[in-house]
Amino acid sequence: QVHLVESGGGLVQPGGSLRLSCAASGSIYSIYAMGWYRQAPGKQRELVAAITNDDITNYAASLKGRFTISRDNAKNTVYLQMNSLKPEDTAVYYCNAERKQPWGDDYWGQGTQVTVSS
């Protein structure tokens, strides 16, 4: 199993920045990719960004350029740097870990609230 703990959310003014962290523990060796998703009230959960073990990244097209995903393998942690935040970025942000075969499952963190408001 994999356990994910997010941190770094909070209230920020429009135009500000936040960095989210997701620390993984447990069966780290089984993880293929980690990513960030978000869910705003009344909307479906959507992919924000993901990064594989080979450092291949994938971003939501609308967010590329403002958000950057990175990883620190020594700390088993993935980060999401969010710049030029907008009110529409307000959501609960969830960390996700996909496991490679033969497991093929995924795990979610508890979520961290990001609110962009003046």
Task: Provide a brief overview of the structure.
This protein is mostly beta strands and 118 residues long. The chain contains no helices and 11 strands.
Classification by helices and strands: mainly beta
Radius of gyration: 14 Å
Say how many strands there are.
11
End-to-end gap: 40 Å
Shape designation: globular
Largest sheet entry: 7 strands, mixed
**How many distinct helices?**
0
Order of helices and strands: EEEEEEEEEEE
Mean pLDDT: 95
How much helix is in the residues? Answer: under 10%
Portion in beta strands? over 45%
Short descriptors:
single chain; 118 residues; mainly beta; 4-stranded antiparallel beta sheet; globular
SSE topology:
Blueprint: E1 2-7, E2 10-12, E3 18-26, E4 31-39, E5 46-52, E6 57-59, E7 67-72, E8 77-82, E9 91-99, E10 106-108, E11 112-116
Parallel strand pairs: 2-11
Antiparallel strand pairs: 1-3, 3-8, 4-5, 4-9, 5-6, 7-8, 9-10, 9-11
Structure explained in plain terms:
With 118 residues, the protein is mostly beta strands. The protein has strands at 2-7, 10-12, 18-26, 31-39, 46-52, 57-59, 67-72, 77-82, 91-99, 106-108, 112-116. The strands form two sheets. Strands 2, 4, 5, 6, 9, 10 and 11 form a seven-stranded mixed beta sheet that branches. The model has no long low-confidence stretch (mean pLDDT 95).
